[in-house]
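Technical note accompanying the year-one report. For the benefit of new consortium partners, we illustrate the data format agreed upon in the data management plan: each record pairs a sequence with a structure-token string. No post-processing was applied to the example shown here.
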Amino acid sequence: MEWTSIIAIYVLFWVLSAFVILPFGIRSHAETGIEMVKGQSDGAPVEFKPGRTLVLTTVLATLMFVFFYFNYTNEWITVADIDFFGSRERLESLQ
């Protein structure tokens, strides 16, 4: 696998992980009982911790990428394993 592919796949895992991690640990003003500022959105978080989010996102993305890379090198799950509709055989019969 090329190093550029490794970087691109890791970035994809990182962005996916960010969307997974963002909702956890967020509390609104209604949940905490703190008074809202005039003009503030109802869903605005009371306290956002970007450092915590970045660390958790990086950890999750790294774990997912490690599992992906080990699967890529050891071929635990291949395209043939997840081809439930037999599309590979149909494509080969057309050629």
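Partners are asked to follow this layout when depositing records. The radius of gyration is 21 Å.
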